[in-house]
């Protein structure tokens, strides 16, 4: 039952009231772009993803080609971060931009879910793993078969 919850805005349920800011590596490398794509698709089944471009397969490691330049990208993203209800980040591929977004999100007191794949052989930064407080900032280890389930469990 959805009683007591924020009503969805459209009867078709396509537009959700929940706004998710999804973070994934771009200039840090696009090795996991396919996984980001799956995560964004899953999130879009129940929320509005403000940064759906992060999951676009065509987006390469040079990033978006916007004539207004990097300041535009930065200011637009910080604005989207402010508007978001929840931040979901795939943090396996290290990315300065994702780390920056997470730091800003903590400062804005957003709810944050970080997803990391130990099977990568990498060790997650202490500044991310160590930020887990079991409440507003959660780091979840997962393997790629579980993507959809992990997101369902969290939301
Ligand atoms: O073109 C871009 N568009 C964009 O939205 N970003 C944001 C969203 C991503 O979660 C994050 C990726 O940072 P980086 O490029 O340092 O890996 O920064 C980053 C870039 C390129 O740095």
Automatic annotation (TrEMBL):
Keyword Phosphoprotein annotated: yes
Residues that hold substrate according to the record: 21-27, 36, 101, 125-127
Record localization: Cytoplasm; Nucleus
GO MF annotation list: 5-hydroxymethyl-dUMP N-hydrolase activity; identical protein binding
Keywords on record: Cytoplasm, Glycosidase, Hydrolase, Nucleotide metabolism, Nucleus, Phosphoprotein
GO BP annotation list: deoxyribonucleoside monophosphate catabolic process; nucleoside metabolic process; purine nucleotide catabolic process
Catalytic activity, as annotated: a purine 2'-deoxyribonucleoside 5'-phosphate + H2O = a purine nucleobase + 2-deoxy-D-ribose 5-phosphate; a pyrimidine 2'-deoxyribonucleoside 5'-phosphate + H2O = a pyrimidine nucleobase + 2-deoxy-D-ribose 5-phosphate; 5-hydroxymethyl-dUMP + H2O = 5-hydroxymethyluracil + 2-deoxy-D-ribose 5-phosphate
Principal subcellular localisation of the protein: cytoplasm
GO cellular component annotations of the record: cytoplasm; nucleus
InterPro entries given in the database record: 2'-dNMP_N-hydrolase (IPR051239), DNPH1 (IPR028607), Nucleoside_deoxyribTrfase (IPR007710)
The enzyme's E.C. designation: 3.2.2.-
PANTHER family tied to this protein: 2'-DEOXYNUCLEOSIDE 5'-PHOSPHATE N-HYDROLASE 1
Description of how the protein assembles with itself and partners: Monomer and homodimer.
Family the entry assigns: Belongs to the 2'-deoxynucleoside 5'-phosphate N-hydrolase 1 family.
Function of the molecule: Catalyzes the cleavage of the N-glycosidic bond of deoxyribonucleoside 5'-monophosphates to yield deoxyribose 5-phosphate and a purine or pyrimidine base. Deoxyribonucleoside 5'-monophosphates containing purine bases are preferred to those containing pyrimidine bases.
Protein name from the UniProt record: 2'-deoxynucleoside 5'-phosphate N-hydrolase 1
């Amino acid at each position: 039952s959805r009683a007591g919850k924020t009503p969805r805005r459209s009867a078709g349920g396509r537009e959700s009231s929940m706004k998710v800011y999804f973070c994934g590596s771009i200039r840090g490398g696009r090795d996991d772009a396919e996984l980001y794509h799956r995560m964004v698709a899953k999130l879009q089944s129940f929320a509005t993803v403000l940064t759906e471009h992060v999951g676009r397969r065509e987006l390469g490691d040079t990033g978006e080609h916007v004539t207004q330049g990097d300041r535009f990208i930065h200011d637009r993203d910080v604005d989207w971060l402010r508007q978001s209800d929840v931040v979901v980040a795939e943090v396996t591929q290290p990315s300065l931009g994702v780390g920056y977004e997470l730091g800003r999100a903590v400062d804005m007191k957003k709810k944050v879910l970080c997803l990391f794949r130990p099977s990568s052989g990498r060790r997650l930064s202490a500044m991310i793993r160590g930020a887990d407080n079991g409440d507003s900032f959660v780091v979840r280890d997962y393997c790629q078969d579980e993507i959809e389930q992990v997101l369902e469990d969290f939301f």
